[in-house]
Every structure is written in C-alpha cells, then in structure tokens.
Design brief:
InterPro entries: Ala_DH, Ala_DH/PNT_CS2, AlaDH/PNT_CS1, AlaDH/PNT_N, AlaDH/PNT_NAD(H)-bd, NAD(P)-bd_dom_sf. This protein folds into two domains: 183 residues, NAD(P)-binding Rossmann-like Domain (Rossmann fold, 3-Layer(aba) Sandwich); 169 residues, NAD(P)-binding Rossmann-like Domain (Rossmann fold, 3-Layer(aba) Sandwich). Helix content is 35%, strand content 16%. The strands form two sheets. The protein has an eight-stranded mixed sheet with strand order 3-2-1-4-5-6-14-15, with helices on both faces. The protein has a seven-stranded mixed sheet with strand order 9-8-7-10-11-13-12, sandwiched between helices.
C-alpha cells in the first residue's frame, strides 16, 4: 500500500504521525511511504532519517495526498486540507467529529474513509490510540494548571505543592479515566491536595486503592461538584464519552462559587469541552478569563511536547497502520473489531452513532458499508 504522511499544519501542532522507526517497519513489509518534507522536524526527526529507512520525501501536502492510498495524520484535517482528500482514500487520524459539525460535513462530502483514532476500541472497552495522548494530556494538565495559577498570568498566586507552613493548593479532577488518573498522580506528586471525582463507584474503589494519601475520591454529582469548586484552586476536566460530546459538568452559573484566579483546564475540549464556558484555544493564545476564572482549553495539548507525544503515539498506532496497509481497510476492519469501531464516516455515510446523534445526521450501520 502507498502510505502518506503530511506535515501537520494546525496551530502549533508539532507532532508527526509516523516516526522513522515506524516508516522502517512499513517499508520492510513492502509498503511505500511518502513523507512531506519537514513533517518530522518539530518532533526531532529529519528528512534524512526518513530517507535512510527507505521512505520518499515529497515537497508539498498536495503531492502526498495525491499519491497516497492511506493518509496517516495526528490531528483532524483543517479547512485548507479538505479539498486534498480524495474519494475512497483512507484517512487514519484523530477526528473528534462530535466537536466539529463543519469537519463532519466536509468529510461526508469528501467520500473518503475516515477511521478515527479516538474510537478504536478493544474488547475491554479501552481506547488504545487515545490512551497515550490521554496520558500526556493528563500529566500536562497539571503542569499547565500550576503555571497559570501564577499571579502574573492572572491566577490565584498559589504554589501547587505549597511550602512548609503554607497549605498546598486544592486540585479538583473531574473524571477518573486515563486523563484523570495521570493528572491525579502528577498533582499528588507535587504535593497538592487532590479530589478525584467519577460517577463509577467501582472505578472510585480502584483509584482509592492505588492513589497516595493526598488523593481523596468523591462520587460525582452536581451537588458535590458545587461543594468542591468552592475550595478548589485548579480544576481539571477529564471526562470522556467515546465519539460523543462531553457532558457540561460545570455550568456558567457555577463560576460564581469559585475564587478569583481559579484555573480551569478542560482536557475534554476535543469533544466539545466539559465546562459550559469552554471554547478551543491554542498554544499561541492558551487562556482567556470569564468572571475572573482562568480557562485553559488548548485542543492539542500534547503538541507542546512533540517528541514524547510522537513516539508514544506511533508506539500505539503502528500495529494498526500495519494491519490496514497489509490487508486494506475493508479486510482489516472485518478481521479486527478494534478497527471496525474506529470507522466514523465511510464514502459519505456516518457509521458511528455518536457522530450521527451529535449533528442529527442519518446513521448507517457499519455492516452495510463493509458488505
């Protein structure tokens, strides 16, 4: 198969979808890999490194899209890439369709095959291609939150871990999945007082067993959230409903309960955000303030640490990329239920229920497009 890796062009997106090691694995299996010049540069990988393993370098994204049967990306296509995508072309990337009606309609119009990293799902309900970036984003959420608590950037002026004789910050984490777990570990390691909330009692029991003593687990409810935000300095939104919009756990009217300078980090922004006042921001302009509350809603947080993120992502995606390249998307999806659940839009039809429901679009059973 001909595999194409274009350079990511979303604002401050520094990752690349395939490392030279990944390209080597594909070339060794007889596949052709085309990489746009400079695609790996911001992640620390040169064109020469790709050429050394047998990949070919092309000058423009158009050349890559024109020749490739499968496009492997990191972030969803943006407007200037829509017209580059061809009918029947397989595009394997993070799409997060439920957060963008424009993108959904553009991919329907393209007649491409859109296989989304974020909905590839194992039999145990885990999301193998979301996990590595969730791990990065969870840890980064605390790192960024700690920075924006500083007074020069309008935070409360609180050191996350405190010092002897001064209380540590109170950190509230909404969601006990991968993001929330890694955020809790980081915040606890820095010495903060952490409250971790989830709606699953079995999950809270698991977390209570593995977390250090400065992490308290609390059942999530509107009432409990309101009580916790009154004393929180940093609030991290870490909820996920695979392929669907995130629920709004903190509404606009709840901001009045918060201290001025409280920081809210919405890691769920890719899925529409779990705070009512959230809107996507960029690494260039990461925050804004509403009612004296600092909002950090960067939609591609792991893009700020591209080497770590790129290697972690390729470690997870490469086995699936190889399956797709070896077998073609139809056979691969028939043989792998993981990949089957990754199909979101196929030849103009929405085949993932959460996406159809998000934008009130007709839903087609995935079995129909595989027939």
């Amino acid at each position: 198969m001909i595999v194409g890796v274009p350079k990511e062009i979303k604002n401050n997106e520094n990752r690349v979808a395939l490392t030279p090691a990944g390209a080597d694995e594909l070339v060794e299996r007889g596949h052709t890999v085309y990489v746009q010049t400079g695609a790996g540069e911001n992640s620390g990988f040169t064109d020469e490194e790709y050429k050394e393993v047998g990949a070919e370098i092309l000058a423009t994204a158009k050349e890559v899209f024109d020749i490739a049967e499968m496009i492997v990306k990191v972030k969803e296509p943006i407007e200037q890439e829509y017209d580059l995508i061809k009918p029947n072309q397989l595009v394997f990337t993070y799409f997060h369709f439920a957060s963008s009606e424009e993108l959904t309609h553009a991919m329907i119009k393209s007649n491409a095959v859109c296989l989304a990293y974020e909905t590839v799902e194992r039999p145990d309900r885990s999301l193998p291609l979301l996990i590595p970036m969730s791990e990065v984003a969870g840890r980064m959420s605390v790192q960024q939150g700690a920075k924006y608590l500083e007074k020069p950037i309008k935070g409360r002026g609180i050191l996350l871990g405190g010092v002897p004789g001064v209380k540590a910050a109170n950190v509230l984490i909404l969601g006990g999945g991968i993001v929330g777990t890694h955020a809790a570990k980081m915040a606890a390691g820095l010495g903060a007082n952490v409250t971790l909330m989830d709606i699953s009692l079995p999950r809270l029991r698991q977390l209570d067993d593995i977390m250090p003593a400065n992490v308290t687990t609390v059942m999530s409810s509107r009432y409990n959230i309101i009580q916790e935000i009154k004393q929180s300095d940093l609030i991290i939104g870490a909820v996920l409903i695979p392929g669907a919009k995130a629920p709004k756990l903190i509404t606009r009217d709840m901001l009045k309960y918060m201290h001025a300078g409280t920081v809210m980090v919405d890691v769920a922004i890719d899925q529409g955000g779990c705070f009512e006042t959230s809107r996507p921001t960029t690494h260039e302009n990461p925050t804004y303030i509403i009612d004296d509350v600092v909002h950090y809603c960067v939609a591609n947080m792991p893009g700020a640490v591209p080497y770590t993120s790129t290697v972690a992502l390729t470690n997870a995606t490469l086995p699936y990329v190889i399956q797709l390249a070896n077998n073609g998307w139809r056979k691969a999806c028939k043989e792998s239920k993981d990949l089957l659940l990754g199909l979101n839009v196929v030849n103009g039809k929405v085949v993932y229920k959460g996406v159809a429901e998000a934008w009130n679009l007709p839903y087609t059973e995935v079995s129909e497009v595989l027939a």
